[in-house]
Design brief:
InterPro entries: CAT-like_dom_sf. This is Acyltransferase. It comes from Rhodopseudomonas rhenobacensis. Helix 2 runs parallel beside helix 8, helix 3 (about 50-65) crosses helix 8 (about 220-245) and helix 6 packs across helix 7 (about 165-170). The N and C termini lie far apart (about 60 Å). The protein has a single domain, classed as Chloramphenicol Acetyltransferase. It is globular. It has 8 helices and 8 strands. By secondary structure, it is of the alpha/beta class. About 40% of the residues lie in helices and about 20% in strands. Strands 1-8-7-6-4-5 form a 6-stranded mixed β-sheet. Strands 2-3 form a two-stranded antiparallel ribbon.
Length: about 260
């Protein structure tokens, strides 16, 4: 059967380079259903409902603020060592359409725990709707991807194996999900040490959350604690921030202890 040659677009080339950089990370996966009914109730009456990606980004950073291992990278150069970042840096997968092609680009969100949830959501929404050229992280990716492969290979190697640069290329954690498009479990890859994905909210307030992590950095016991602390942060600090921004005239949120 005779087909035709198709050029690899720059967004597709970025994903190819990203997967090449990710394939050697020894990821381990854990999934748990979290009870987010208090958070869901608070979000339902908020004046502005932030997206779930922004909510999870801030919750992860809140937990990582008191858990340095969640801000720790495995670095190979000049010898194998760990590098602890002073703050969390997120790489958020954003679905876009460029020149008629569906693609995924990465938006950098730094220290989400230090800014209001509305601002975290605004950064992600800007990346979803603004022209590609107006998003600094996208411009950097497009410039990098336009370079010849040998230069890109050196740039990726330098960026991922120097502690100070790793956060700029891959962050300390990533978030990706297909929940906005429908149900499904996503087990993605990343060159970063932690990758979080979430499903759709159930009628009873439950949500499936998947965490993949670099086994060189930590073990499963830490991830069990992460799930517990994430649930507490989501139903605690995040829900409280949403309740403080309750829409005028909205009924008070009742939190019923299980």
């Amino acid at each position: 059967m005779r087909g035709r040659f198709c050029k690899v677009s720059r967004p597709r080339q970025f994903v190819i380079d990203l997967m090449r950089a990710s394939h050697r990370v020894p990821f381990i996966t854990m999934k748990r259903k979290l009870d987010l009914s208090p958070l869901a109730a608070a979000r339902a009456v908020a004046a502005a409902r932030p997206g779930w990606t922004a909510i999870f980004a801030k919750a992860f950073c809140l937990v990582a603020r008191d858990a340095p291992i969640l801000r720790t990278l495995f670095i190979k150069w000049p010898w194998a060592h760990f590098y602890e970042l002073p703050q969390s840096v997120g790489m958020i997968a954003v679905a876009r359409c460029l020149d008629g092609e569906q693609c995924v680009l990465m938006q950098k969100v730094s220290a989400a725990d230090e800014i209001p949830l509305a601002e975290v959501d605004a950064q992600i929404c800007h990346a979803r709707t603004a022209p590609i050229a107006e998003v600094p992280a996208f411009r950097r990716m497009m410039r990098l991807t336009s370079l010849p492969w040998p230069i890109r290979q050196l740039a990726w190697a330098f960026g991922l194996n120097m502690g100070r640069q790793h956060a700029n290329y891959a962050g300390s954690y990533g978030i990706t999900s297909v929940a906005a498009f429908g149900p499904g479990e996503l087990y993605a890859l990343s060159p970063g040490p932690y990758l979080l994905s979430y499903g759709q909210l159930d009628a009873d307030g439950g949500m499936e959350v998947i965490v993949r992590w670099d086994h060189r950095v930590t073990d499963a016991a830490m991830i069990v604690k992460l799930f517990d602390q994430l649930e507490a942060a989501l139903n605690g600090a995040i829900a409280a921030e949403l309740r403080a921004c309750r829409a005028p005239g909205a009924a008070p949120v009742r939190v019923v202890a299980n």
